[in-house]
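Schema walkthrough. Field components (list of strings):
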Amino acid sequence: MTETGLPASVEAIRRVREDPHRLGHRAHGPAEIIAGAGHGMTGPASKRIIVGYGFWIYLLSDIVVFSCFFAAFAVQRGATAGGPTMDQIIEVPRVAMQTAVLLVSSYTCMLSFAATNARSRLWTQVFLAATGILGLVFILLELQEFAELAARGITPQRSGMLTSFFGLVGLHGLHVSAGLLWLGTMMAQILVKGFRPEIVHRLICFNLFWHALDIVWIGIFTIVYLMGAG
Amino acid sequence: MFGKLDLSAVPLSEPIPLITSAVVILVALGVLVLITVRGWWPYLWHDWITSVDHKRIGIMYCLLGVLMLIRGFADAIMMRTQQAVAINAEGYLTPEHYNQIFTAHGTIMILFGAMPLVLGFMNFLVPLQLGVRDVAFPTFNSVGFWLTASGALLINISLLIGEFARTGWLPYPPLSETAYSPGVGVDYYLWAVQISGIGTLITGINIVTTVLKMRCPGMSYLRMPVFTWTALASCLLIVAVFPVLTATLAMLTLDRYVGWHYFTNTAGGNPMMFVNLIWAWGHPEVYILILPAFGIFSEIFSTFSGKPLFGYRSMVAATLFICVVSLLVWLHHFFTMGAGAAVNTFFGISSSIIAVGTGVKIYNWIFTMYGGRVRFEVPMLWSMGFIFTFIIGGLTGVLLAIPPADFVTHNSLFLVAHFHNVIIGGVVFAIFAGAEFWFPKAFGFRLYAGWGKVAFWCAFIGFWVTFTPLYILGLEGMTRRLQHINVPEWGPWLYVSVVGVAILIVGVVAQVVQLVVSIRDRELLRDVTGDPWDGRSLEWATPSPPPFFNFAVMPNVEGEEAYWGIKLRAIETQQLAPEPKYAPIEMPVHSPVGVYTAFFATVFGFAMIWHIWWLAIVALVAAFAGFVVFAWRDVHEFEVPAEEVARAERARRASREALLRKLSEEGALP
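Field assembly_structure (string):
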């Protein structure tokens, strides 16, 4: 970034253009009319708003996908077909570990975006890398869990309950894996291209995605693991 | 190497699919040769295939939809004629083949005929009506369209290579599980619908974002045209329920490919869970189709009655009411599941209540015509035919919503007649009305009205002659999907129905003739003003066809019926608004990523269907690589110079000024 003679004012103008809602910088009280936010009669929103908004809508649709797998789990929870029950397949310590790892990864992800806002390439990369490593640990722990279950003959083919268990947890794992692929691509892009507007927009989307996966995991942790173990 | 695929996959012993495929391949080759000989490839590639222009994508959606409508209609002709000749006889279609035909008919008509047409209208119209230059995500729009085309291609490949599902358009387990459908038919269904469903979801997200975040200055929600409102409601439903389809099909895929137990009838699987999930998508799906149809009719009634739409706000409210309640009625598709009186009562009442929203709309349309100067142009004929047809379809629907009555008519031809009554009378009539109405906007010349009237009357009469007998047969106890019939008394009604199909065929021929005649006489039918019907919303403010940037200067809307206000002011003051200052415009660059992704999606789907695992992996990696390359590009937009904008806009102003002069000479000005 080349800085001009009035860095603070230039920065302020750029911020407002990119983020007309001035998230976190606006006083409470009655909402003023904001140009560029796409509200009411003010004309089309800025690209940043449009991208973030569209991605939110995608996330909602993705959460509907998860809700179907949750519903299937709720329906088939008791359908063990004479096989193992939930409390026989759950290892709470490992899941607690997974949960901790994923929550911390959300925190590092947020830090990476704080670094992005400060236009620090180094710290963005550092925190994205930390997020990626934590995500990888999460996936490896999940694979270990699945492998151990499979070694005990506990596979999705055994019963409807196990099908819906592996389906729901596996779907989340698949999302995290896809997120890791995305994260790697984003890190390469920052490395090569720096903080272009479209790359910052993609980082916003990636952050939303990663946090959404965390929220879904909270649901899985509670409904599948904690309620299953109890 | 090739998984389950070998030469036996080609149905050499069955002449009908073989000859059909041969003809289709020959025609396709002929078209390709023609394009090559004439040197049209660069034009096609740059201006259509890689285009991210919402209008071009909308037109391509409609073209795909029309082709698939014809394919689905061919299936329908075969079904009606088979039933008419198979009375205490075998008929000319084997049960295996007949079952594939009714499955393909339903799947193609809903997902690859009606859906692309409705999405095409939304794509073409929403940015124009909102006064903006494109949708929120133009390149994703192209990806969405090409994925839908990819699904359509897969379904049609199944005609020649392998077979299609024999399960009905919603593949109910356990019939659709590997144990009972071991062939590739259900797999063709799963991958074709899955891929196109993702395309539809992308378009849905795109249009919701466009409507909620990209309206021109002054275009508040309650100034949006009703078509845009219905497009919003429809796309909200897409975002809410297409993920359910994705999830459900994914579960069935897991059952079939790796032996899981979501829907099996052994080991704790639950087949009724499929039925619930699929209808949680399937019922809102029909409202996804019908809501934009309501929008099209609203625009037409208002334009051709020369009046603002009666009860605009109640129309918006009714649209959103239907949008929400459509999510609460899915169980009426299987009252016979045995969920108990309380559950059936809830869904029976909710299914009846949704008719209230529709009733509000019907009265609004009637009151729009009341006291107006109604012009009986072709779009208006379709619209009035719709009111008559749709009311009867709606009433039989309310009849079916009563659980005890439904127990009698469940899966009978009465049901078949009912949903054809609302889908043909609602969606298909809307598509033809809308095509007639917006054709000049898309292509710059009108369709020849004479043949349009022939097409309407054939479709209207043909529809009733085809489907009234089915209502009667349903009440007499004839169930759906019968390959042969052993009750001779049903014969006469089935013959009448075939006569209806013949009338419908004449209607289709009339549509084709209309298109040919209109293209031949296009100079006579040319729309020079851009406002051929005395329209009221912003798309009529653009020339026909609109420039790729739609509006030289973004309009500033000052009330409901944005363009009507501008037009009245111009006529009153006898001049156009003062010429604005023209600025350069940024437009998105074209991109082959859509067609590239869809190509590998097709390869991936085909590889999965035939268990060619290595090819599936190659296709996935290639698709990901395509996205990375796309993400790496440096140029996202190009600038249209102010002079080019000015030139296009001045031509438009000149034609409008000529219109004003003409009106003045005719003494039509105040």
